[in-house]
Amino acid sequence: MRRIAFLNCLYLVLITPFISHSQSHDPFEQVNSIYDEQNPVLNPEGNVLFFTRSHHPGNVGGRRDRGDIWYSILQNDKTWSEPKNARVLNDFSWNGILGILPNGDILLSGHYSHSRTPVRTQGISIAKRRGATSWGRPVNINIPYFKNLSDRSGGYLSQDGTVLLLSLEGYGTKGVEDIYICSRLASGEWSEPKNLGPVINTRYQELTPFLSADKRVLYFSSNGHGGNGSSDVFMSERLDDTWVNWSEPQLVKNINTGGRELGFRVYNGFSLYSSTQNSDGYGDIKMYTDFDVDSLLDEVVTLNDSITFQEIKEKDPDHITLHGGVYDAASGGPLNASIFIASGDSSFMKSMESVPSGSYSVILPAEGSYRVRVDAPGYISHQEQVEVIKNEDQLSEMNFSLQVISVGTTVNLENVLFKQSKPDIVESSYPELDFIVEFLKENPSIKIRLEGHTDNRGDAKQNLKLSKERVNAVRDYLVKKGISKRRINGKGYGGTRPIADNNDPEVRKLNRRVEFTIIRK
Q1: Alpha-carbon distances, residue 124 vs 265, 358, 516 (angstroms)
Q2: Taking a C-beta distance cutoff of 8 angstroms, is the pair 304, 258 a contact?
Q3: What is the pLDDT of residue 366?
Q4: What pLDDT sits at residue 429?
Q5: pLDDT tens digits, 229-274
Q6: Among 66, 70, 110, 322, which has the minimal tally of Cβ within 10 Å of its Cβ?
Q7: Angle at CA 38, nearest 5°, toward 35 and 42?
Q8: Domain ranges in the chain?
């Protein structure tokens, strides 16, 4: 179950990011696409734009690749050229640029495994510049006591190369991703990561940090400090040299919207960042110009189309705007889906169609439990429970990735739970199992294979036996609901097919799962 929390005051915003006072056309017209563009970084000369593009067929790993580094050249008309994949900088993991040194060498995140060996690395590497748009193969660097448990990466290397900020989920984080600092020592090595402390880091996400040239002002994205929508851009001033004393983070003016803003970086008279607001696909590269740092602190803007904050507050202060997008799980492209939301007591029900860009928005009354269902033709529907909690500050964005109905598609039944060390199904699992029953009845020609998995703790034979018994329990439930036995195969694998590190207590639980795979359509 997802939890979505909100404050007594609801901040809504409608700001169209300014592209340029002098240009009537979008300089990123050839850069932004239906795919996810994020993490924009300029080279020192200002004529090469780097960014990360997710789930693009031209990525090293194709449509399943979570992010490759691409680059674009500034043209004479001040627009950016058709991007090219910087293939030597990429592998099958998420790849993004942390910083570029004055000599053009690039520090990047990615390359978690050496291409020729199965050895897993920390994922931070440096690539030597060989030409304007050519680099040597990235070479991994070592940071003591650094381990990122998150599938998100991000950071910033200061212009002089002495300070490295990293957004990561480690053993000392306050919640999920926190921002840490590593300093370059006199020996040339890096210090171990140091948490920036509770003023900056919350129990939610702090992402994509950036430092001003004098290293005194920190910009970062967060969904843990309030704001206008999803992840917003904040700024804070460093108060001393300890790197743990900061001023209270403030919203950056004219940047934040009801969407998700990430990767904010300040250049000479303008800033670059990515936003999901009014984008071609998921995230687009945006530019804001003609500001000075002193005018960046935001006053809350209270517009959302024709609805004002005051009107909503007078009607009922206990509302939350839920918004997000629906996407193809393989390509990352937007889907035009239908969405149904209902409260637990059925006092609130709302049906809507997502717009062609895949986005949706709905205002939910009061706190409570809601059931959300997402359907798109040719895709496996998605359903889950959402709990809205008052007087907390958290994400109000929900994105959904739907899997196409095809042979070989595997669905992880995340909400099908069992009693500890037993095959007994927990009652809260019934809604998801009923959802599978409905799916099979709507698609009577489909056959599935149920697969049970455990972690590798304990006796291997007992784990194998338990995984088989849990598969049988799920199959028995489906059969009792009217699904033919002939349409369901099943097998238990015990702990032989982990999807996460069994030695890591933070992620080991991901190995304890039941899945189904479509074996005939």
Answers
A1: 20, 34, 36
A2: yes
A3: 61
A4: 82
A5: 678 999 999 999 899 999 999 999 888 887 889 999 988 778 999 9
A6: 66
A7: 130
A8: 23-141, 313-402, 410-520
Residue 263 CB neighbour total at 10 angstroms: 28
CATH class of 410-520: alpha beta
Extract the runs of DSSP E, i.e. beta strands, from 55-105. 68-73, 84-85, 96-100
- Return d(Cα 367, Cα 64) in angstroms, integer: 37
Tokens of 146: 């650094």
Enumerate the β-bridge partners of residue 195. Answer: 180
Q: Which two tokens mark 172?
A: 């000392």
Between CA 245 and CA 153 the distance in angstroms is 24
pLDDT at 351: 74
pLDDT at position 112: 59
Cβ(107)–Cβ(154) under 8 Å? no
Where on the phi/psi map is residue 404: left (φ > 0), alpha (ψ -120 to 50), or beta?
A: beta
User: In whole angstroms, what separates CA 499 from the centre of its chain?
Assistant: 19
> Among residues 503, 226, 272, which one has the least CA distance to residue 391?
226
pLDDT value, residue 52: 94
Cα angle at 273 between 319 and 109, to 5 degrees? Answer: 110
C-alpha closest to that of 181 among 159, 204, 160, 158: 158
Q: Which residues of the chain are under the pLDDT cut of 50?
A: 4-24, 114-119, 291-317, 391-395
Q: Indicate the pTM of the whole model.
A: 0.55
Q: Half-sphere exposure (CA, 13 Å, Cβ side) for 446? A: 22
Diameter over CA atoms, the chain? 70
Q: What is the pLDDT of residue 346?
A: 65
The pLDDT of residue 357: 64
H/E element holding 390? strand 382-390
CA-to-CA distance for 199 and 242, rounded, in angstroms? 13
Cα 242 from chain centre:
30
Measured distance CA(271)–CA(269) in Å, rounded:
7
Under 8 Å between Cβ of 125 and 138: yes
Nearest CA to 63 among 71, 54, 72?
54
